[in-house]
Amino acid sequence: MERNLTLELQQWKDNLDRKPLILEGARQVGKTYLLQKFGQENYRNTIYLNLENASSDIVALFDGELKPKRIIANLEIYFGEQILPGESLIVFDEVQEVPRALTALKYFHELAPGFHVVAAGSLLGLYLHSGTSFPVGKVDFLHLEPMNFEEFLIASGERQLITQIKNSHKIVFPEKLKDYFQYYLVTGGMPEVVASWVNEHNIEKVEKIQDTILSSYLRDFSQHADTSTAMKIRQVWGSLTSQFAKENDKFLWGVVKKGARAREYEIAVQWLVDSGIVRRVERVKLGNKLPMRAYQDSSAFKLYFVDVGLFRRLAQVPTAVVLEKNAIFNEFNGLIAEQFVLQNIQSKDIFYWTSGAQSEVDFVIQYEKDVVPIEVKSGENVKSKSLGVYRGKYNPRLSIRFSMRELLMDDGLLNIPLYAIFLIPGLIEKKK
Question: Which residues in the chain land under pLDDT 50?
Answer without folding.
Answer: 126, 129-131
